[in-house]
């Protein structure tokens, strides 16, 4: 498996337990550890019906149950950082699982609670044993305290609690590719063979994009722009850049709409909207 660590600056860790995942702007992405909830508001039925192309509650439930066939306990429509989200709570085999569903695209953005207790674990390309070995290989001497499988930012990840040199910390590993996405601050400086510091990582991101990651780009800039415009309901394109965020390649698209500026990040491999930030 490929060993690669996305190191994030300390400025992104502001706000208590919420850990920002954007390499360029704190709070721009759903956090790896907790959903950023400071700008969350409940949306009324009337408000929800005003959104262009919004999916129904039934469609949101269907998207959640396509991953985990549980019974529905609760469905709410919320707005998080200007983005409409269906929060779907499913009950499965004695546990509750909270899904965040994009109310426009129908994409599943996150799943909270341990999916290792469900059949979902059998669908992962990287099994839990491989993920553990990858986490342990980052340190000279370390032990595993706990492992959970969740979905963060639209991708399945193993959250592995590691104990090394008397310190506990989490390592996040992509359950599809085996990439190391994040090492928590408390144990990051104990990782071996990482070499580059934060500035080196950020400075080399574009070079890495141009070389080894070229083959992972599956959609064109024009397709990304069309997706972004459809997602926010139109506007004028100011700028489009290809960059790496949270270990994935995204098109960063700046749109002007009725005097407002909105930044939309589109996954360059899947074409999915990763984040929307209204100024």
UniProtKB/TrEMBL annotation:
<feature type="compositionally biased region" description="Basic and acidic residues">
    <location>
        <begin position="202"/>
        <end position="216"/>
    </location>
</feature>
<feature type="domain" description="PepSY">
    <location>
        <begin position="218"/>
        <end position="276"/>
    </location>
</feature>
<dbReference type="Pfam" id="PF03413">
    <property type="entry name" value="PepSY"/>
</dbReference>
<keyword id="KW-0732">Signal</keyword>
<protein>
    <recommendedName>
        <fullName>PepSY domain-containing protein</fullName>
    </recommendedName>
</protein>
<feature type="domain" description="PepSY">
    <location>
        <begin position="55"/>
        <end position="111"/>
    </location>
</feature>
<feature type="signal peptide">
    <location>
        <begin position="1"/>
        <end position="23"/>
    </location>
</feature>
<feature type="domain" description="PepSY">
    <location>
        <begin position="126"/>
        <end position="184"/>
    </location>
</feature>
<feature type="region of interest" description="Disordered">
    <location>
        <begin position="193"/>
        <end position="216"/>
    </location>
</feature>
<dbReference type="InterPro" id="IPR025711">
    <property type="entry name" value="PepSY"/>
</dbReference>
